[in-house]
Structures are given as structure tokens and as C-alpha cells.
Amino acid sequence: MPQPPIYLDHAATTPVRPEVLDAMLPFFSAKFGNASSTHRWGREARAATDAARERIAACLGAQPDEICLTSGGTEADNLAVLGGWRVQQGTGRPALVTTPIEHKAVLASAHQAAREGGEERLIAIDATGVVNLDSARAHIRADVAVVSVMWVNNETGVFQPIAELATLAKAAGAVFHTDAVQAFGKLAVDARTIPFDFLSVSGHKFGAPKSIGAVYVRRGTALAPLFFGGTQDRGRRPGTENVPMAVALATAMELTLAERDAECARLRALRDRLETSLLACVPELVVHGRTAARVPHILHLSVPGTDSESMLMALDLQGVAASSGSACQSGSVTPSHVLSAMGVDAALGSAAIRMSVGKLTTDDHIDRVVALFPAVVRSARAMGGRFG
Amino acid sequence: MTARVLVAMSGGVDSSVAAALLVRQGYDVVGVTMKLFEDGAELPDRPCCSLDATSDARRVAEQLGIPHYVLNMVDHFSRDVIADFVAEYARGRTPIPCVRCNTFTKFSDLVAKADGIDAQYVATGHYARAVAGALHRGADDNKDQTYFLWGINRSVVPRLLLPVGDMTKEATRALARELQLPRVADKPESQEICFVPGGDYVQVLRRALGDSAPSLSPGSIVTADGHVIGEHDGFARYTIGQRRGLPGGSADPLYVVALRPDTREVVVGPREALLGTSLTAAGVNWLVDAPPRAGDEVQVRVRHRAPLAPAIVDHIDGDTVHMSLRVPVSAITPGQSAVLYDGTRVLGGGIID
Hints:
A: alpha/beta, 3-stranded antiparallel β-sheet, 14 strands, globular, B: 6-stranded antiparallel barrel, 5-stranded parallel β-sheet
């Protein structure tokens, strides 16, 4: 009987926590009401969404009216970046500043703004994976509507100087957005201490279901909606409120924050041991972003002489789930735009794989992955060869 | 431990049924779909290799409960198959990219992948049979694909599993229905070259060579005795035996009988001028211990689906084989393959010079 598989892809998604599932279930059945209705069913649903919004706000150091619920991280990023840019057009701020290492949801929103007449500017990234502040200063000028820089990069786990960047943006009169999808639950995310105007989170990264996210909108920050319809969420995001998902997001955020310090310490120990042990058995292995400050759960590495696709296939056949930076729709692996922005050479960049520890990870998992890793590397190297 | 087999799944009926049969036979089956070229917006819906075909393959693998991976082999395929395809047309020949895909991509690069994952066997949906280290024609004479398989490394043959090679196409389709694979059972046949959108190979050449390439530039259409009877706009648009694109008006229909890339001439003649009684195959690969020798009688196929023609080996010079045909054969075309058979067994093959 083969051993059970090992999930090392928590940065991709996480299982729904049982407490979260329990909390949301009543709103599918007994408490099924529409939060916009005036009757008792409506009031019951309204009470749950109002409470959820307050709880979510509290987790972000925000006011309830600053929380806009979305279908997930992608919509949150689109709403902040594109909605924040569109609403400022005609005011002499055609530019949008972001970085080449953003999630596609931000990059594609910036491209869309460019198609609508905007000017897209990218801040340079240094070799460790951190934005270059001189480059940021050069790009963030009085003609900029929105600056969007992710808090934690989803491939490398490296985090960015968000407070400095937000301050630069504010000084130039721009609004500042940060994609905090990989940051929430790992770093202190508090609207009272860091002057971001928009911030995106995604529930399934920390134990809520897929398809629930939120964008924090600082009071007084204008935003053009992406959808048109009713007045739900102050017209920022029309559509019948998704009550169970709002409850799920609030519950998952609270649970995550309550255990943040202990869980981060546990994950850091697991990740660091994985990193050290893999380096010991494959010394030529390269850890991306190793010298920068990183979140505790992500290990992004390349083994010279392999490619991501072969590594992931060999790992999967051995029962280990990892991922590369980005997968195209057909399922084939494409080279990482993040690593190329960091100046990592193409061969090494095309060998990158990401292992991310989390709730499901145990010490035994780390031991097993380390034990089978040399064989995986041999497999992957053979796969890149040519028979005969 | 059950033997592992890597099966190349295109999303079509043949490789889907092949995978299903291997699962049924108890192998440890790993499915892969090779991504061979960039299928951007300029290549909408292709019968093979497209996103749709990849999702069909994935869906079949899901149904069969086997892992499925997409392997990006774009770089090697471009170098080994597409570049040669373009170069051959540019020098007035008519290449068969499927032969090189089998030789270099499927049965070399893919075999390395199989080695990497400790798969002893490699399987495809080809209509051919591998028996005791020998390659034989498929049971369905209409579907036999050995014409495209002569170039593979001989040491791969014992590792080949070709589950539909014993079946007719109709039986394969029927089995697909029986195996609950309706999604692929009635898919149309993919006859086109996978990387040529809409069958317009000239567009591929134009993109690779540029509009002003000699092979795509105007030249004369001439008769064998030197009379210019018209103009053409690129000899790469022509192949031996072709009638389309030639001037009409002559008493007997005209056919392309030769291409002269040096002078950019397309030579035409009557149907009889297409007949040939000898041929030379270069770059020959043998799939048998004792290849034929001068004086031996063999059967040769010079075009996909052409009848087998009896021939005598005149002489062999390294990997070049000169043969005489017992009866004249029409449209022996440089760049196509000459595949030698002994009964159903493939002896080897080469590229017609």
C-alpha cells in the first residue's frame, strides 16, 4: 500500500476549515434569506452579513463600510486597480504604476487600463525579488492615478516595503493598492498603521471556500464599479449578497488571526527544515529570494539541469503536490515572469518549483519529501534528455 | 509491481482507446499530451494539439482514473520537425513532418520522459503492431501508419505498446462507445498536419521564410522540352503529381513532374511522365537484424496509402538504398518516404531523393 500523498501547495489553495464549514452551512438551508429583503428571513440574512462585515473589518483594522465583498482575489484586484484608475480619468492622472512580478489579476487589469488610454509603468525589481525604491520614486509622479504593488509575491514569498510605497504614492496624490492575497495570516495587515487605500484578500488561501474575497476601500477613496445593478455594497459591488460566503470569510479570518503567531512559527520551522535538508542533498539547488524577507510558508527553488514540468510530474508520481509559478490554461508550464523580472537566467527560471507548507503539513511530510527528492531530481534530469 | 506505461494522448479516439485498453489490461498508465506548437489566436480550433484536444485528453484520463500531464515540447518540435518541413519545401521537396515527429519527438524525446518516470513502455494510438521487437503493419490496411514510423530507433520497438494496431478504425470507434468515451468516439479524423492551420502550409512557409523567399517567388511553368507555358507564384506551392494551379487548355491534362529550385521552374508533363521505375532512398533506418542486400526482392511504398510495389535492391551505399521497381510507379516524390516491407513486417525506410 503506497503512503498517502503529501500536499505542499498551500499557497495555491487550502482545505476549508471545519469550523468555517459549520458556520456557513445554516445559510444554505434554514437561514436562506435574501439580505435585501425586509421580512424576517431577510433580517436574519442581513444580520449575518452585517456581522460578517464587521468581523472582517476588525481583522483588517478597518471600518465595516470599508469592506467590499467580491468573488475572490481576482475580482478584488480588478475592482481596486481598474475601478480606482477609471474613476480618476479626466483628472490629469492617466498613469498606473505597478511591478512586473504582480499576479496576473493585477497585470491584466493594468493592461486593460492601458488599452483604455492609460499609461502603464513598471517598477524595477532587484535580484532578491524586492522592488527597487529608486525606480518606484522615479515612476510615482503627479500624473499617476493608482499604484499597485503586491504585499507578498505568490511565487517567491518575498515581501515588499508596502508602508514606504504607500507613503510615496500618497505623497504624489495617487491611491495605493496592495494585493495581500498571500500576506493575510502571515504578516500584520492593519489599515490603521499602513496607509494603503485598497487591499485585496482571498478566502481560499486561509481556510474559506473558493470564490469569496474582499477589497478594503479606505473611506473617501473613489472607485468605479465593475458591475452595474442594485445598491448592494453601496453600489460598489451590486448583486445579491452571498451570505454563507461572507460568514465563511469572517470565520476563516478570525481563526487565522487567532493562531497567526504560533502557526507562522510552526510553518517557518517546517519550511526552513525542508529548505536546509533539500540543500544538503542537492547542493546545487537554488532558493529564489533566499536573502530577502520571506513569508514563512513558501519555498521557491530551482534544480539546475531540470525543468519545472518534469519536476512537478516526477513529484506528483511520487505523491508530492507542488506547483510552478504559473500554469497556462492547457496545463503546460510556462516560464515564470517573476523570476525573469528578478533577472534569474532563463534555464534556471524554467526549472522553478514552489513548495508551500500549511495546515496539512507535518514533520513526517518533510522527512518523506527530503528522502525522495534525489530520485525526483534524477527522474526530471532524465526526462529532459533524448533517447538514443 | 505492475509495469508502467507512458501513453501519448492527443485527445483523439485512437489514443484514448489505447489508454483505456492499457488500463483494462492492468498497466500502471500515465497519460501525457504533448504541446507541440503555440496555439494562439492565429490557430483557432485544430483537430490535434489544441486546447480543446488537450482538454479532451484530460477528460478521458479523468474518466479512466489515470494521471495526465501536458508536456511542453514546443522547442524541440520546432527545431526537429517544423524547421525541416520549411527547409524541405524551400528546396523543392515535399516533406512528411509526421515521420520526423515520430522519429524525434514521440519515439525519442517522449521515450526520455518515459525513462525519467521509470515507464518501461511507451504507448500511442498508431495503427501498427510491434511484435517480438519487429514492427508490422496494422491489421486495418486502410489505416496502417507504418509508413510514418520507419525512422524510429530500433531499440524502442520492444518497448512499444500499440493497442489499436490489431483493430480496424470502426472497431476502435465501437470500443470507444463501449468504454463510455462518447466525447471522442465520433470525433472526425485528423488528416491535416497538426501545426498547419486550415491546411494552408504556404502560410507556415511564408511566416518562416518571408514573402520574398525564392520558393515563394514567381517562376516559369515549363514543359520537359523547355517550352514556357505559364507562370507560377512559388514552386513551394507545388508537388509532384499535382494538377491544381497549372494552366488549362492543353489536350491532355498536365501534371507537375519535377521542381527545379535552382531556376524556380515547375516542370509539367502528361500523366505518363509521372511514372518512374527506380528510386533512391537516403538516410535509411533499418528495423531488422539483417537488412536486405543487393539483389534482394522487397516491397516498397512510396506514398501514404499507395499500393506496395515489388522492387529489387540494386545497391546499398551506406545509408542510401537504390532500388528498381518491377512495375512503373506514379509520382515518386523527393522528400516523401520510401518504406520497405517483407510481407507485413517493416524492414526499414528512408527519404526519397
